[in-house]
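Lab notebook, bench 4. Continuing the backlog of folding jobs that were queued last week. Each job is logged with the same field layout so the records can be merged later without manual cleanup. Today's entry covers Lipoprotein, a 242-residue chain. Filled in by technician R.K.

JOB TYPE: sequence-to-structure
TARGET: Lipoprotein
LENGTH: 242
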Amino acid sequence: MRTAFAAAAVALLSATAAACGDAGQLQSAGPTQTADSPAKLWPDLRPASSPAYPYDVATRETVKGLTVPSGDIRRIDPVDIVEAELKAHPADYGSKGAFHGTVDRVKDCRAGGDRALCPLLKPYYRDLTGDGRPDLTLGFRLYPTNQTAVRVYTVEGRHLVQVLADNDAILGVELAGRALIERNPADISGYEYRTTWEWDPGQRAMVFSRDEYLHTGTGHRIHRASPSARPSASPAASPGAS
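JOB STATUS: finished
OUTPUT FIELD FOLLOWS
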């Protein structure tokens, strides 16, 4: 009886160990694909000596008519900044300009105006240049189009300097570290187009760093106007997804 009991115990322990081992052991996922090094195509192709099209990777402009004596950008009225741009770019905001409807709407941003008609969006303050002081990210609608102006301003001495200017149809804007990310409607259903601008201390501006089409899974085909890096610039072709 002792022999039979011991044999049964051994069999039970063996079965239990096997069951536990099956649950925790690694299993093969099949053969691993062999890694291939990048293949350089057309090694004899003559390299291009100039770009195929112009593209402004950065814009920088000192705002005329406004000074910052205290160096605190928060003390400047955002409405004053928008009005300074309207005045500086009559080709865009004049009676025959593409964004002429913005001029009358800005008047409603002042006291006594209809705030529902004001094109100015909520301003955001964050250090994007790395100098320890807040910079201003500003947005305002460009009527009568469906585009939105996205601007970033910093202070240098007593001067207010615009270090990013982009007009586009906007789904959303995000700040991540010292980068600004724009989300735009793509012309492909189920995708959106994202552009990232980052602070470049060499150019002292927010420079275009990458763009990409991202799959969102849903959406409709939307005609997306080509962005212009500065208000009066003609639309430029995208440099392609990176």
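OBSERVATION: Helices lie at 2-24, 78-88, 90-93, 101-106.
SIGNED: R.K.
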